[in-house]
């Protein structure tokens, strides 16, 4: 019998993720009055650091809710009854975005792939050629429940040649890999600190291009005086401007601490750490005898590894064993990918190659309890270590 650890020891999920210790310390700092000069300076500094991290020319907008708020706000701010939307669906988040897009626009179009594949830019090019009336294109960069990465730079280059604005969900990739708003021609780039930056869920970060601001400002439907309003928060980073309502003081402190860590380590070094962890994890998963969910290795995300479940294995039971017996928490599939895969996150503080060993060994051992001799844990562990040593 395994002696069950009482609590989760390793949170190796795809978000929320465990926070960096410096972020937890920042959350514990005294909560200042929002118009205290000290907090006004913190807010301005956090905004400037977010701008540096996102490498944009204007300050990002910080909204007061975890990134689904940013995604809904983007749809609400951009869309009106005359808009023609093209939504690119390669996974559960891309599919779910329809829920906010469709009711707000005049015409809704889709390009859809199987959820272990990614969007083909050629298909986008021919759709844009066929429908020059398209005004908005939306895509999820890393569709987390599939662990796959869409070619957003190639798609963005196509959209940039049209009048359409490009909405990119980069919630679970920004900060963990090379994805920057301007480089992919994003007009509304939505992310948050609660995945690869290692913060708790609570804020959305939006980088908006000149084209994006023009679209929002010319849209009479764009919310004002609302939790969904991007316009309300446009100037919040300026210490002389009032906040539309009280900012989340503790979350802003935490965001600044996370950005300090990110900028001090250096984006390239952070991205490389995420990629090395994913490489080690994938090597172990395959050597152990399991399959990746992604149809091809080159579309598999550096910030999460989705592992196809062997037939007949119940994912809830599998994850229960991993947690109860080994203290390791990983993520389930969602929606269409539920019970077809499990996901190991490599995000923020857990993007450390040695964590791949923990994940691979715990997953292999738990699977072997449900389906004996499915996994060669020794081979998996050896492959993880060889991958780490090969760098
Ligand atoms: C985590 C995540 C979000 C934020 O949504 P929640 O499911 O509420 O955490 C949005 N988009 C993507 C791709 C995400 O991974």
Characterize the structure shown.
By secondary structure, the protein is an alpha/beta fold. The protein has 2 domains: 10-17 and 267-389, Alpha-Beta Complex (Aspartate Aminotransferase, domain 1), CATH 3.90.1150; 31-264, Aspartate Aminotransferase, domain 2 (3-Layer(aba) Sandwich). It is built from 12 helices and 15 strands. The protein has helices at 21-27, 37-54, 68-78, 92-101, 121-130, 152-160, 210-217, 249-265, 267-287, 315-326, 353-370, 377-389; strands spanning 10-11, 61-63, 84-89, 107-112, 136-140, 142-143, 148-149, 165-169, 188-191, 204-208, 291-292, 304-308, 328-329, 331-332, 341-345. The protein has a 7-stranded mixed sheet with strand order 2-10-9-8-5-3-4, sandwiched between helices. A hairpin with an 8-residue loop joins strand 14 (331-332) and strand 15. The protein is globular, with a radius of gyration of 21 Å. It starts with 9 loop residues before the first strand and ends with a helix. It binds pyridoxal-5'-phosphate (PLP). Pyridoxal-5'-phosphate binds at residues 15, 66-68, 93, 140, 142, 144, 169, 171-172, 195.
Q: What descriptors fit this protein?
A:
391 residues; alpha/beta; Aspartate Aminotransferase, domain 1; Aspartate Aminotransferase, domain 2; 2 domains; 7-stranded mixed β-sheet; 4-stranded antiparallel β-sheet; 12 helices; 14% strand; binds pyridoxal-5'-phosphate
């Amino acid at each position: 019998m395994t002696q069950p650890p009482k609590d989760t020891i390793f949170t190796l999920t795809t978000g929320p993720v465990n926070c960096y210790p410096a972020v937890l310390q920042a959350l514990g700092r005294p909560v200042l009055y929002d118009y205290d000069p000290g907090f006004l300076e913190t807010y301005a500094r956090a905004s400037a650091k977010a701008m540096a991290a996102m490498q944009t020319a204007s300050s990002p907008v910080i909204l007061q809710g975890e990134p689904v708020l940013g995604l809904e706000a983007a749809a609400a701010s951009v869309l009106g009854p005359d808009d023609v939307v093209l939504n690119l669906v390669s996974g559960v988040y891309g599919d779910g975005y329809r829920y906010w897009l469709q009711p707000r626009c005049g015409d809704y179009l889709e390009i859809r792939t199987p959820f272990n594949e990614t969007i083909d830019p050629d298909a986008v090019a021919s759709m844009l050629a066929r429908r020059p009336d398209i005004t908005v294109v939306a895509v999820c960069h890393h569709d987390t429940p599939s662990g796959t990465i869409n070619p957003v730079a190639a798609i963005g280059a196509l959209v940039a040649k049209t009048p359409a604005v490009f909405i990119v969900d980069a919630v679970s990739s920004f900060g963990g890999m090379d994805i920057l708003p301007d480089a992919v021609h994003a007009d509304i780039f939505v992310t948050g600190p609660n995945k690869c930056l290692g913060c708790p869920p609570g804020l959305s970060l939006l980088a908006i291009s000149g084209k994006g601001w023009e679209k929002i400002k010319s849209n009479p439907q764009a919310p004002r005086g609302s939790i969904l309003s991007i316009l309300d928060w446009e100037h919040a980073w300026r210490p002389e401007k009032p906040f539309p309502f009280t900012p989340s003081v503790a979350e802003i402190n935490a965001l600044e601490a996370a950005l300090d860590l990110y900028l001090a380590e250096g984006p390239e070094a952070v991205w490389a750490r995420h990629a090395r962890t994913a490489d080690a994890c994938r090597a172990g998963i395959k050597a152990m005898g399991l399959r990746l969910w992604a149809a091809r290795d080159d579309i598999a995300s550096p910030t999460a590894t989705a592992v196809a479940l062997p037939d007949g294995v119940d994912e809830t039971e599998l994850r229960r064993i991993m947690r109860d017996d080994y203290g390791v928490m990983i993520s389930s599939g969602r929606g269409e990918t539920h019970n077809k895969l499990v996901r190991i996150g490599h995000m923020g503080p857990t993007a450390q190659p040695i964590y791949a060993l923990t994940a691979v060994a715990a997953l292999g051992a738990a699977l072997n309890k449900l389906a004996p001799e499915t996994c060669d844990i020794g081979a998996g562990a050896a492959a993880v270590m060889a991958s780490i040593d090969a760098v």
